[in-house]
Structures are given as C-alpha cells and as structure tokens.
Amino acid sequence: MTLALTNTDDAYTTNPARSSVIFHAVPGIYFYLRMLGTILDASFKVKRKKFFEEDWIESSLAIIRHLERVDCRFFVNGKKNFIDLDGPCIFVGNHMSTLETFVLGAIIRPHRPVTFVVKESLVRYPVFGKVLNSIEPIVVSRKNPREDFRIVMEHGKERLSRGVSIVVFPQSFRTRTIDPEKFNSIGVKLARKTGVPLVPLALKTDAWGSGWPIKDFGRIRPERFIYFCFGQPMRVEGNGKKEHRQVIDFISGMLEKWNRI
Questions:
Q1: Spatial contact of 99 and 207, defined as CB atoms under 8 Å apart
Q2: Does 35 reside within a domain?
Q3: CA 101 to chain centre
Q4: For the domain that residue 42 is a member of, what is the CATH number?
Q5: Per-residue pLDDT averaged across 123-151, rounded?
Q6: Three-class DSSP labels, the chain
Q7: Would 3 be classed as within a structural domain?
Q8: Mean pLDDT value across residues 50-61
Q9: Rounded to an integer, what distance in angstroms lies between the CA atom of residue 34 and that of residue 66?
Q10: Quick check: is 51 in a domain?
Q11: What is d(CA 254, CA 248) in angstroms, rounded to the nearest whole number?
C-alpha cells in the first residue's frame, strides 16, 4: 500500500486494498489496538524528549495506515493551495470527528510548520495530551468566549510570527453538518489582524464515529469515505464578513457534494 501524503502532489487517494476477513469484520478492534500502540510510542518519545517534527509526521502517517488497513479510503485534494504559499496561513475548517486531529499532521506538516487551536480537555488526556502539547497548540477553555478570543489573537499572532500555520475549527463541537449560526469567525478575525492568508478546509471524517461512554472511541465505518479538500487562499479585507461567508459556502458545498456520492 503506497502512502504519498508527504510529497508535493496536489492530491492523494488511497489505493483500494481489501483487508483480511477478520480486519474487515471487526475494523474497530484492529484499528484501536494499532492506534493506541502508535500513540503510546509517541508519548514515550515525548517523555524522553526525543519526539521531533518528523516523529509527529510519522505517527500521523501511521494512523492513516491503520485506517487504510481496515479498508478506509482517503481522498485529499487542493494541497497546492497551501504548499505554494510563501509564508504561514490559517486553515479554517469544519470539525466532524477525532480523525482530523490525528491525521492533519501528516497532510500539512511535511510542507509547513503547523499547530492547532484546541480545547483544554484535549491536552489533559492521558498519553495523547503529552503528544498534543509537544506541538505547542493554542489552548482555549470553551467556557469564556471573551478570554478564548484574547488567547487566540495573542498566541495566534505569536505563532504566525514564527512561521507556524494554525488550524482553527470554529465549531464548538463535532458535527456531521455545518450550521452557519454556530460557525464563529475567529479564524477570519485572526487572519484579518495578522494579514496572513486564510485557507478554507472542508472535511468529511465520520468514518471514525463518536462513542459512548468514551466519545473518542466510536465505531470505525470503512464504507464512509474520508475527504479533505483545501480551498483557494484568500486575503481578508474590510470587516471579513464576505470571507467568512465564502468559507462557510465552500465547506457546505463540499459536504453536499460528498453526501451525494
């Protein structure tokens, strides 16, 4: 199975390969066992201060390999829209599952330094929290919008000044749909304040479902294809309302297209 997410091609598509009967019948068991092994290894390296950028890329690639091993298929398009940029950018995307947090490192980081805006609870996770902390995320509480805004503006400006791009998920919760009323404009405001380009990111990652009682360990559904599409970069002008609308329209349009497939 060839995995070429680290090259400079504009797109990547999983080469279909049927898993074994056992893996196909119980994809979740195989995937979570492999995933936990990958995260434990990464956490061990972080603890020993031997976890570097290439290790993050490799661990993210490993998560993709584990998913592909149970017949999940990735379709990634529009990479050139950020690969060809001269400096850092802000990725603004919808948030559907745990999957994107694990694998975007393999898609973006080979081409530019990147980190995430994340909720505080994620960096407190056992094992995974240590790995996430190693990439210097911007941590918000999701309890005090005014304070969260200040943190994103202040820390976002600092990260961007060092050439580190930022992934922002404006929705406060994971959902398979996009509600314009609940899709805040914090990414657009950060792009406006710093003058860096904004890159819309549409994704469909419900192949990794939500679980109960542990939300992050849901059912793995290989029949649901995994999509990532990066839109054309834009500069925020004026109050940013037009660009915010364009981001929402781009994501909504891609979701409608993918849901028809």
A1: yes
A2: yes
A3: 4
A4: 3.40.1130
A5: 90
A6: CCCCCCCCCCCEECCCCCCCHHHHHCHHHHHHHHHHHHHHHHHHHHHCCCCCHHHHHHHHHHHHHHHHHCCCCEEEECCHHHHCCCCCCEEEECCCCCHHHHHHHHHHCCCCCEEEEEEHHHHCCCCHHHHHHCCCCEEECCCCHHHHHHHHHHHHHHHHHCCCEEEECCCCCCCCCCCHHHCCCHHHHHHHHHCCCEEEEEEECCCECCCCCCCCCCCECCCCCEEEEECCCECCCCCCHHHHHHHHHHHHHHHHHHHHC
A7: no
A8: 94
A9: 7
A10: yes
A11: 10
Q: In which residue are the tokens 């980190």 written?
A: 115
State how many domains the chain has.
1
List the domain range (segments joined by +) for residue 44.
Answer: 12-260
pLDDT in tens, 158-182: 999 999 999 999 987 788 888 898 9
Confidence at 261, pLDDT banded by 50, 70, 90: confident
Indicate whether 4 belongs to any domain: no
Phi, psi of 108 (to 5 degrees): -95, -45
Q: What is the pLDDT of residues 184-227, one digit of tens each?
A: 999 999 999 999 999 999 999 999 998 766 777 889 999 999 99
Among residues 161, 167, 108, the alpha carbon closest in space to that of 138 is found at 167
Cα(251)–Cα(187) distance, integer angstroms? 14
The strand pair at 165-168 and 198-204 is best described as unpaired
